[in-house]
Amino acid sequence: MSEEKKRTAGRRSRRGSRVKASFTQLPKRKFVNTFKPVEVISEDQVEAIHNASLDVLENIGIMVRLEEARDILRAAGQKVDEDTHIVYFDREFIMDAMSHAPSEFTIHAPNPDWNMEIGGDNVVFAMGASMPNSSDLDGGRRTGNQTDFRKFLKLAQSFNVIATTGGYPVEPVDIHASIRHLECGRDFATFTDKPPNVYSLGRDRNLDGIEMARIARGISHEQMLREPSLFTVINSNSPLMLDQPMLQGIIEMARHGQVVILTPFTLAGAMAPVTLGGALTQQNAEALAGMSIAQTVRPGAPVIYGGFTSNVDMKSGAPAFGTPEYTKAAIATGQLIRRYNIPYRTSNVNASNIPDAQAAYESQMALWGVVLGHGNFVKHATGWLEGGLTNSFEKVVMDVEMIQMMAELMTPIDTSVEALGLDAMREAGHGGHFFGTQHTQERYESAFYSPLLSDWRNFESWAEAGSPDALTRANQIYKDVLAEYEAPKLDPAIREELDAFVDRRIAEGGVKTDF
């Protein structure tokens, strides 16, 4: 094959893949952010926030509401007030602990083709998660259930830009809370072969999730310890508190070499100071505290710093997302995180109640924060509505379109001799056109991004087709994807071991709950 044909074939493979008859998507590939990080604060301002957050840790402290965690920190030389449960973190301790955190690592999937490279310039997108409700045009907004949960898993498996479900896309409340994590873990391994998540809602759920992930990969406990295979999100109880379940999650995941994404929930004006500088300072203090615990438990444990600082509507107190403040905070957080040389988790979020224009433009603002801030792990990349209370099937499709467009935006421009097209200019001549040139004919199928959702027909053709708007088209696309879903192959021996573990734990009653 000539070099020109190799380049053309490569572009065709990269640009678009007609995977199914009814929808077009980008082929699976590694996404790399080729842009230079943007800076919204100066180096001096980064240092000011860094030093202020260390001052918070040393002099105000973090409430650590788990005796085991306080014992670990006390043994590491930190000042602990047992009456208030507040720990005062020495800044040298924090910086030494963070020096052990890896800058890059791999989260291993049951199918190695879906391994996620975390850190550096790598970007992975995770489906929206932890929503109590789901919605679509047909059934409206409804309480989360297992049927919808499984539909979202099928979409996560089917779309190439989605690297992982990121958690429960919707909470299946028709499964009792004591065994929900077991049934969901089995569904993760059955309906997808991408990396799973475990919720840190008590030690037993963590241990069950770790074991199910190990079984799904068909590996030993020793290999699981060396190869991170699932992740958890730890939300600090802002302001300045880590509760028992979250701390148990940090400890157990770190002990077993699994990934902790430490994410303070710092909404400026509500759970953090009303100024962005103050909110970022508090976010940084809480994140460093949680990650330092992980490093104390197991130096070198994989951690990701989660930035989720946004603002609230000061008229109502409701969270606001996809705002200019959110995007600035996302970019500034990237600057802070690069100071510690660890991976960065951010999100694609909005505050709209339905998948409308507001949802689209606020999500676009959030995605600019992802790209310009150099996020590595993008939580809630698809489906998020209503400030995180609803996962929308149509919004999943809208977001996949936006993510694919961002991915193409990050693809470098080809400036090879052939791509510059001088021969095509000679062939077209002065005042001619390029439709029939050899240069165009060799590239027209793969030259440009092929949309999943956007409708590029002229008005007459669109009207003849019934004038479908984007929401109507997204509704049909998600149904088409579900209709053409193919379950990943699961080794019968793995399925048997997984079922045996889950069924045994269910028979034992799962985990204790409050009801």
From TrEMBL:
Q: Which UniProt keywords apply?
A: Methyltransferase, Transferase
Q: Which GO terms describe its molecular function?
A: methyltransferase activity
Pfam families recorded for this chain? MTTB
**What protein name is recorded for this chain?**
Methyltransferase
- First-tier enzyme category under EC: transferase
Return the Basic residues bias intervals. 8-18
> According to the UniProt entry, what is the EC number of this protein?
2.1.1.-
Q: Where is this region: Disordered?
A: 1-21
Q: Which domain of life is it from?
A: Bacteria
Q: Which family does it belong to?
A: Belongs to the trimethylamine methyltransferase family.
Listed Gene3D superfamilies: Trimethylamine methyltransferase-like
Q: Which GO terms describe its biological process?
A: methylation
Q: Does the keyword Cell membrane apply?
A: no
Question: What InterPro entries does the entry give?
Answer: MttB-like_sf, MTTB_MeTrfase
